[in-house]
Design goal:
alpha/beta, seven-stranded mixed β-sheet, binds S-adenosylmethionine
Length: 201
């Protein structure tokens, strides 16, 4: 089933569904037009009003677009579970309340579709954001990244992500990458699972 999906984002959503539980706290580190934020909200929202999605984007236009997608797609009560922040994702620790059990931090790197293609995520802040995500993620959680290699800087960013993943301890993390071998310019999906219990080596 997973392999029948053509897009890295679709594969990512299927995997998130296996990880996220109702009532969880999750972070969309690159809201863009809000499709990932919406998918996450559907996964965390429960009837008693638990579940939080912290959405981040450096562009105000992206957050506006995310807010209108939510207005069209969810109830007011559900929308209240989403908190949007116009900051760099390297600062994610500042917005999530201490001791919040963050089970997913998702990145969809690159530029805002339909927006200014010159404004893209960059390796340096992506690296800082990954370090922040690593700190706040609970055991059993996931850092998910869709990385576009077909635009300038994209391949370098994938190298940064891969270097970060390769440096994570084997006893605490399972790190893997999905890539379409017959579509070399298709986005890669990098998944960093934090183990529930550290393995003794
Ligand atoms: N997930 C989005 C969706 O479903 O529509 C698409 C995300 S888009 C590919 C990447 C987004 O990352 C852009 O909206 C861009 O403004 C944002 N971005 C770039 N650098 C950022 C940074 N340092 N911190 C937070 N967001 C950033």
């Amino acid at each position: 089933y997973v392999f029948g999906k053509k897009k890295a984002t679709e594969v990512a959503h299927l995997i998130w569904k296996r990880v996220i539980q109702n009532g969880d706290t999750v972070i969309d580190a690159t809201c863009g037009n809000g499709y990932d934020t919406l998918a996450m909200l559907k996964m965390v929202a429960d009837k008693s009003g638990r579940g939080r999605v912290y959405g981040i984007d450096i562009q105000g236009d992206a957050l506006k677009s995310t807010a209108s997608l939510l207005d069209e797609s969810v109830t007011l009560k559900e929308k209240e579970l989403v908190k949007l922040f116009s900051i760099c994702h390297s600062r994610m620790e500042e917005i999530v309340p201490e001791n919040s059990p963050v089970r997913l931090v998702a990145f969809n790197l690159g530029y805002l579709p339909g927006g200014d293609k010159r404004i893209t995520t960059v390796s340096e802040t992506t690296q800082l954001a990954l370090e922040a995500a690593k700190k706040i993620l609970i055991p059993g959680g996931l850092i998910s990244l869709v990385v576009y290699v077909g635009h300038p800087g994209g391949m370098e960013e994938l190298e940064t992500v891969e270097a970060f993943a390769s440096g994570l301890s084997v006893s605490n993390w399972i790190c893997c990458k999905f890539q379409m071998l017959n579509r070399p310019l298709a986005p890669a999906l990098v998944l960093l699972f934090k183990r529930e219990v550290a393995e003794t080596q």
